[in-house]
Amino acid sequence: MSSSQTARILITDDESSIRSALREILEFENYQVDEAASGDQALEMLRKETFDLMLLDIKMKGIDGFEVLEAINEEKLNLPVIMLTGHGTIEMAIQATKLGAFDFLQKPPDLNRLLITVRNALERGTLQRENRKMKRNVPSVSEIIGESEGIRQIKATISKVAPTDARVLITGENGTGKELVARSLHEQSRRSAEPFVEVNCAAIPSELLESELFGHEEGAFTGAKRQRIGKFEQAHNGTLFLDEIGDMSSTAQAKVLRALQENTIVRVGGTESIKVNVRVLAATNKDLKVEIHENRFREDLFHRLNVIPIQVLPLRERKGDIPLLANAFLLDMAANDIIFEGKSFSDDAMSALQEMEWTGNVRELHNVVERLGILSSGTEITAKDVKALAGGVGSSQSVKETAMGDMLEEYDDFQSFKEAAELMFVEYQLEKHSWNISQTADSIGIQRSHLYNKIKKYNLTR
Predict the structure, then answer these.
(1) What pLDDT does 405 receive?
(2) HEC string for the chain
(3) Which of 365, 393, 421 represents a domain boundary (last residue)?
(4) Are residues 211 and 320 in the same domain?
(5) Band of residue 129 on the pLDDT scale cut at 50, 70, 90
(6) Domain with 385 in it: what CATH number?
(7) For the chain, how many structural domains are there in total?
(8) Does 307 share its domain with 353?
(9) Shared-domain flag, residues 156 and 301
(10) Of 67, 230, 266, 412, which one is least surrounded by beta carbons within 10 A?
(11) pLDDT at 17 exceeding the cut of 50
């Protein structure tokens, strides 16, 4: 599962209330959720469809969770499984581990523990698929598309730097392709056959980030029921990509600095120093020199990471690359979905795309191309299609101005206006961050639980 895909999760539990509660939590986190009310139904779905993860209750009517897990192993259905139970015992946990379960959670699960476990399980599954792919010697070099001067410089730098173990700090706005640069560095390096492990420092609560990076020992904190291997150890001999490094807590920064200095880590709750051989790449959309001045980022860590700086320019500063990108996206979609076959852009459509603001950069362009390919009539996408379906030039600003103006005219009392403005602000920020609840909450400075409350209050859906 690539970062651009939505993970698909199958919840199997014979209690509808548990399924509904888990579905609500996971869908808020932008996962695609399916449900099975019994073990037999779950196995039937697994045999017909592909899932990235399964949440499986142990005690169910009919065949129980252990029997389902045994069948998954026997039929080699290849997906991580998180076991759930309302009355867990040590014997159950041992049995689940022996059968290959990724983790074992008590019902109702702690929210943070559940989300971290789901994320870890999905990433483990991704690593396993990528390793199988590399072992089959299938080429997987990510292509950076563009012929602008900025892109040519990035490609030249990658060619020089990739074969070394030099650390690289990649900067640029959201959606510019920083992760693609990191993957290209890994795939052109001597470590390309080893794991590429990514950590989004902005998406993980600060109190859990250290465990995510360095792992933890059994009993290190409430809910740490077994030893866990962190990202540094998972990336041993490979590459660790620290995305959104500017959002890392000061405590985690200090530990990362030590790991870079000594090439060793200590798990949370542990005392043993563990040697790691990891190449670290980092990325951020923040100006770290400003963060250093404001005492939010360590200057010594900055210099450790910023051996080779690479800046990815926003799309508005390299609009000449838009035709190459748009055509490449359309061809890639056509290779995977018949609905895009035969589609192409007219010259005036391409000119219209080049005139747009692209505040969301390459990620926004990709989404717009997909929308145009699906919704446009005929095989040729025209400028009219672009203006109708992609918004046209400056439309986002005019929409905001119109919406605010409408509210000023509509509401006479302050409380009603404040609630309408809050609704518009929350909805805008959720869309801006692709409905990543953790990232949105951190960005606007509120707790995740408060953001959930506002989403429920205004009945917002993606």
Answers:
(1) 57
(2) CCCCCCCEEEEECCCHHHHHHHHHHHHHCCCEEEEECCHHHHHHHHHHCCCCEEEEECCCCCCCHHHHHHHHHHCCCCCCEEEEECCCCHHHHHHHHHCCCCEEEECCCCHHHHHHHHHHHHHHHHHHHHHHHHHCCCCCCCCCCCCCHHHHHHHHHHHHHCCCCCCEEEECCCCCCHHHHHHHHHHCCCCCCCCEEEEECCCCCHHHHHHHHHCECCCCCCCCCCCECCHHHHCCCCEEEEECHHHCCHHHHHHHHHHHHHCEECCECCCCCEECCCEEEEEECCCHHHHHHCCCCCHHHHHHHCCEEEECCCHHHCHHHHHHHHHHHHHHHHHHCHHHCCCEECHHHHHHHHHCCCCCHHHHHHHHHHHHHHHCCCCEECHHHHHHHHCCCCHHHHHHHHHHHHHHHHCCCHHHHHHHHHHHHHHHHHHHCCCCHHHHHHHHCCCHHHHHHHHHHCCCCC
(3) 393
(4) no
(5) low
(6) 1.10.8.60
(7) 4
(8) no
(9) yes
(10) 412
(11) yes
**pLDDT tens digits along 6-16:** 789 999 999 89
Q: Assess whether 179 and 297 both reside in one domain.
A: yes
Q: Which of 264, 288, 313 is the last residue of a domain?
A: 313
Q: What pLDDT does 75 receive?
A: 77
Question: By residue range, what is the domain housing residue 367?
Answer: 316-393
How do residues 76-110 score in pLDDT, each as one tens digit?
777 899 999 887 677 787 778 778 888 888 888 88
Tell me, yes or no, whether 361 lies in a domain.
Answer: yes
Mean pLDDT (the chain) is 85
